[in-house]
Give the backbone structure.
Amino acid sequence: MPNASSIDTLITQFAKLPGIGPRSARRIVLQLIRKKAQLMQPLITVLQDSLEHIVTCTDCGNIDTSDPCSICADEARDNSIICVVEDLADLWAIERSRLYKGRYHVLGGTLSAIDGRGPAALNIDALVTRAAQPEVVEIILATNATVEGQTTAHYLTERLAACSVATSRLAQGIPMGGELDYLDDGTLGAALKARSAF
Ligand SMILES: [Zn+2]
């Protein structure tokens, strides 16, 4: 049985994770202690394995157990198109759609004057190098529809202007199943601007 302080440390560590407050952390720790064999030991094993084997892909910034990552190494994927995302969670979201078969580039965040994050803090130079490769014809700037995301996309457009690639961005507008009356003015405005032929 661990002493009280190690239980407290465990709760504190779990409470640091996104989406988990102190109450959830206490419930998780209690459950782990009650089910050591079924939950705690497998978790320790997979965490240790992840710690030892997960690496960042030097080509695209994705994480995987190999470098280059499985997406960069997949010869069936389209080399002519690179989708630029802010974060790994965005890459995973696009992969879940199963609709995109090109390559990725993970920036590792957005430009932010408030947080003092300039271009050098992001994975931008490597993107410019990749964009200059002759097989690349299009760069999709799939940054978020936030002020920082759009500022970053504009900056990237300027940086990529010297390369002979087309740049595109994701459409903004009405979500699937969305009703016009419930949309905020900004979303409805963006949807009107981005309207397409029926
Ligand atoms: Zn990769």
